[in-house]
Amino acid sequence: ETGVTQTPRHLVMGMTNKKSLKCEQHLGHNAMYWYKQSAKKPLELMFVYNFKEQTENNSVPSRFSPECPNSSHLFLHLHTLQPEDSALYLCASSQQGSQERIKLSSYGYTFGSGTRLTVV
Amino acid sequence: AQSVTQLDSHVSVSEGTPVLLRCNYSSSYSPSLFWYVQHPNKGLQLLLKYTSAATLVKGINGFEAEFKKSETSFHLTKPSAHMSDAAEYFCVVTNYGQNFVFGPGTRLSVLP
Questions:
Q1: Are B98 and A96 in contact (CB < 8 Å)?
Q2: Cα–Cα distance between A58 and A48 in angstroms, integer?
Q3: Which of A10, A55, B22, B68 could bond B7 through an S-S bridge, CB–CB 3.0 to 4.6 Å?
Q4: What pLDDT score does A101 carry?
Q5: Which residues contact A79 (CB under 8 A, 6 or more apart)?
Q6: Do the beta carbons of residue A33 and residue A47 sit within 8 Å?
Q7: Residue B97 and residue A2: Cβ atoms within 8 Å?
Q8: CB–CB of A23/A88 below 8 Å?
């Protein structure tokens, strides 16, 4: 275990379903991320939350809705997805901040194992 | 602005031979650099990181990387490949933990 836990590990859903992906970290990090990894494509950053505030939304369709109730939990709510949304969804956490405030050894992402999503 | 280039999308080596995965970066600041590995159907795992301490960084599973500022490179090496090393490898650059930029990845195949 890396310290970042994602559930479920696998999810199959129909295009009219509503489901949620969950991510949890207990590393004391202040930033959490959702990434999408599709076959033969680079990692795509979807959302960034820092101290529970969304700081980045990379033009993600509204059928993906993130929620960050506290600095340890991150959700991705899914609604009326398309088959092309099938991918591995990765959650990550990190400690963001200036060099003066953060130990250098704290830098870097810690990733969860991902949720393999299949939309049918 | 920062960017990462991984020059090879696919590298194939024989078991027991050296591995070299290339990474070049550009950054306006003193960068922190990372290598992550992703095995099939798994999340990304941190292999090693450079954060302005020693330029030769040792990581897990016998991997190491050398930060060369003059060449803006952070190539990943291993003296002897093992079958279990077959995976996708990502080079990442960031400044002070902000704006992580991922390279496109290099797929490593290890032949018996």
A1: yes
A2: 9
A3: B22
A4: 46
A5: A17, A18, A63, A65
A6: yes
A7: no
A8: no
Q: How far apart are the first and last CA of chain A?
A: 30
Q: In chain B, helix, strand, coil percent, each to 5?
A: 5, 55, 40
Q: Residue B107's beta-bridge partner residues?
A: B10, B88
CB contact under 8 A, A43 and B100: no
C-alpha count within 13 angstroms, C-beta hemisphere, residue A65: 10
pLDDT in tens, A3-61: 899 999 999 999 889 999 999 998 988 889 999 998 877 788 899 888 777 777 778 99
Name the residue among B43, B53, B97 with its Cβ closest to that of A111.
B43
Could you tell me which of B61, B79, B75, B1 has the C-alpha nearest to residue B33?
B75
Q: Single out the residue of A16, A14, A6 nearest to residue A116, CA to CA.
A: A6
* Angstrom distance (rounded) from CA B102 to CA B94: 9
| Cβ neighbours for A100, distance < 8 A, ≥ 6 positions apart | none
The per-residue pLDDT for A77 is 97
Q: What letter represents residue B66's amino acid?
A: E
Q: Is the per-residue pLDDT at A100 higher than 60?
A: no
pLDDT at position A106: 53
Determine if the peptide bond prior to B40 is cis (ω within 30°).
no
Kindly report the average pLDDT of chain B as a whole number.
Answer: 90
